[in-house]
Amino acid sequence: MPGQNAVEAVMTVVSPPPADWLAARARLSPDKTALIDAQRGDAPIAYGAWFRRVNQTARFLRDQLGVRPGDRVAVLARNRVECLDAWFALGQIGGVLQSLNWRLSQRELTAIVADAAPVALLYDARHAQIAAELAALGSASLRRVAFDDPEADALAFAERDALSDDPLPPPPVNAEAPWVICYTGGSTGTPKGAVLSRRAIFANAVNTILSWGLRPDDVTLLDAPLFHTGGLNVLTAPLVAIGGASVVTGGFAPDQTFDAMERHGVTALFGVPTMFIELQRHPRWTTADFSRLRLVISGGAPCPMSVFEAFWAKGVAFKTGYGLTEAGPNNFWLPDEQVRRKPGAVGYPLWSVEARILRPDGAEAAPDEVGELALRGPHLFSGYWNNPTATAAAVDADGWLHTGDLASRDADGCFRIVGRLKEMFISGGENVYPAEVESVLHEHPSVAEAAVIGVPDAKWGEVGAAFLVLAAAASDDELTAFCRARLAGYKVPKRFIRLAALPRTGAHKIDKPALRRRFAEDFPAERP
């Protein structure tokens, strides 16, 4: 990594962010592969060619749809290259991407579309019906554009292909202009639209490149959904900035991951724990070649130690990251040489990220003391769309984002995430962090997946209820004994509830509110 003075010089030179990322890449590496379209026979797209098709897309959005700086354009589609075309084209004309979670119900999507009031809705064939319903319920000015065969009353995205591929003049916007409105998962209530500015997305890319050591020859597999900041910003945008490549797929599938490793030499891989667990269960795990993987990082939820160990056995310095829609999402890095010495830690703040651990009274916590994680830096969001109250509750007067996540920092300054503040429960006066209990449960050979929540209890106030997906039979007594040998008694779950599968949010995280509802339905007498 460059020395401090060199990095400061880089930051000075590249700030403010470039108006058009792809124009810069088309100048610097026009023939280098930017994208590999796995849905079209692994067709490669070079940066120069991508720049030209994005120029056409920008003209289509501006001239055919009337998109102006600040206008929102919604996208309801599985991952595809056209989604990335739209994202960077909106950057060219000052528009704002509102990428919709296609897993949501019509009612949920209607509320989100009404919140941001997009002028156009781009969609794929799979979501044509709900796109029509959203348009019918929304503003009369909402134009529908089909990525695939359009209906009679919709435009065809393919019309862009007839337009000039000459670049447009830069839009009259600055670094604080919104580029993306990314809606939170809603696991703690109604989804809120986090506004990601050009400044925030660029700062995250620079932080990631400088701190994670990304290189122009890096290749990633883009299978995380593009309605989530993980799909957009963990690796995709940073690799565009440095000139790397992304294999664009419609979503996660284990065979697809192994194929991409073999065919395209994937060097950087991001996923959530569920994805890595599925990879390790797959028959190809034992024979797969992991030698080209330089970076494998898990995020979105606590990861079982067994997953770490299986990757380490393959010679991969597997590690866990930490991020959220409102910050980055990349915030920390753990050097490879510390991965086994500090297992499960997220590491040290990235280049321009400030991090603190706060006590309930706002004072800074001592080393190894658990408190709320607060973050500050140019990678933070601009606030919640149309929700100044929620913004004020999240970001204090000094610019610190209060994440709602519990963490600790050791004497070396290395951070570890303990769990969600709202997930922590108190049993008999003692704090219980579900992530710690889940990690122990995942060590049991019969437990494939585990999620723990706090539920009401007449004696202790709250106790743990563990929802389990089992790979083999295990009795309650066996599970209790296993936990008691590794945890304090008050941390041991008092109920074990077996499910065929754990409910998931659109970002593949375990949906704990759904588990709470399930518990209330199964045990109505214990409803709070």
Task: Describe the structure in your own words.
- The protein is an alpha/beta fold and 528 residues long.
- The chain has a domain at 425-526: GMP Synthetase, Chain A, domain 3, CATH 3.30.300.
- The chain is built from 16 helices and 25 strands.
- A 7-stranded mixed β-sheet has the order 7-6-5-3-4-8-9, sandwiched between helices.
- The longest helix is centred in the N-terminal third of the chain and has 18 residues, at 47-64.
- The chain is globular.
Helices and strands in order:
Elements: H1 4-14, H2 21-28, E1 33-37, E2 43-46, H3 47-64, E3 72-76, H4 81-93, E4 96-99, H5 106-116, E5 120-123, H6 128-137, E6 143-146, E7 155-156, E8 178-183, E9 193-197, H7 198-212, E10 219-222, H8 229-234, H9 236-242, E11 245-248, H10 254-264, E12 268-271, H11 273-281, E13 295-298, H12 305-313, E14 319-320, E15 332-333, E16 348-349, E17 354-358, E18 371-376, H13 388-394, E19 401-409, E20 415-420, E21 425-427, E22 430-432, H14 434-443, E23 447-457, E24 461-470, H15 476-484, E25 495-498, H16 512-522
Parallel strand pairs: 1-11, 3-4, 3-5, 4-8, 5-6, 6-7, 10-11, 12-13, 13-14, 24-25
Antiparallel strand pairs: 1-2, 8-9, 15-16, 17-18, 18-19, 19-20, 21-22, 23-24
Helix pairs in contact: 2-3, 3-4, 5-6, 7-9
